[in-house]
Specification:
alpha+beta; 4-stranded antiparallel beta sheet
C-alpha cells in the first residue's frame, strides 16, 4: 500500500507542476520606467519650468548648484526669471548611443532668448523715458528708470513667444548610484539662463 501511494504521488506532483507551469507568470527583469535618461531630461525640464531649482539639481551631474536660487528679488529680475521659467520646454529627439552606463541623447530645448529681447527692451525703455520727459515729467531717479524698464518688459512679454528660441543639443547621461544624471554642456547652460551670457 505504501508503495502504491508513492507511485501515485510522483505522477500527481508532475501533473500539478505541469498545470502550474502553463499558468505561471513570466518573471521579467526589473526595470523602472521612470529611471531612464529620457525621463531624467523630462523631469529636469519640468522642474526648471516650474522654478523648482533645488529639485532640478538632482537630475544634473556636473553642477553642484545651478545658481538659480540665488537670484535677486527686485521686481524686474523676478519678472524676467519668471518669464524665462515659463518659456522653458523640451523634448527628446532620439537616443544616439547607449553603452549601459552612459547614454547620449539628442534633445530640443525652448526658452526665452534674452539676446533677442535685450535690444528691443532697451529701445522700448528709452522711448518710454523720452515720451515721459516729452510730456513734461522728469525721469531722474533710478527708481523711475527701473519702473520704465518694468513697464517696457510687461509690454514686451505680452508677445513673449516672439522671443522664444528652440535649439537642439546633444547631451550625455550617466548612471550614478542607480539614477540617471544629465551632464550639461556650456551651450545648454547658456540656454537654461536665456542666452544671457
Amino acid at each position: 500500500m505504501k508503495y502504491i501511494k508513492r507511485i501515485l504521488i510522483v505522477p500527481m506532483m508532475l501533473l500539478a507542476l505541469m498545470l502550474c507551469a502553463c499558468e505561471a507568470p513570466v518573471i521579467a527583469c526589473f526595470t523602472d520606467e521612470n529611471n531612464t535618461p529620457e525621463r531624467c531630461y523630462e523631469l529636469f525640464v519640468e522642474c526648471m519650468s516650474n522654478e523648482r531649482y533645488s529639485e532640478a539639481e538632482k537630475y544634473i551631474m556636473n553642477y553642484e548648484t545651478l545658481g538659480f536660487d540665488q537670484r535677486q528679488d527686485d521686481p524686474f529680475t523676478s519678472m524676467m526669471f519668471s518669464a524665462i521659467a515659463r518659456s522653458r520646454s523640451g523634448r527628446v529627439i532620439e537616443r544616439v548611443s547607449d553603452d549601459g552606463h552612459k547614454v547620449t541623447l539628442n534633445v530640443e530645448f525652448t526658452t526665452l532668448d534674452l539676446s533677442l529681447i535685450a535690444p528691443v527692451l532697451t529701445e522700448a525703455t528709452s522711448t518710454l523715458v523720452y515720451d515721459t520727459q516729452f510730456a513734461g515729467i522728469e525721469v531722474s531717479s533710478s527708481d523711475q528708470y527701473e519702473q520704465a524698464m518694468i513697464d517696457s518688459l510687461q509690454t514686451l512679454l505680452e508677445h513673449e513667444k516672439d522671443y522664444y528660441r528652440t535649439a537642439a543639443f546633444t547631451l550625455d547621461f550617466e548612471l550614478y548610484e542607480g539614477e540617471w544624471k544629465m551632464i550639461s554642456t556650456q551651450e545648454f547652460y547658456s540656454a537654461l539662463i536665456g542666452y544671457s551670457l
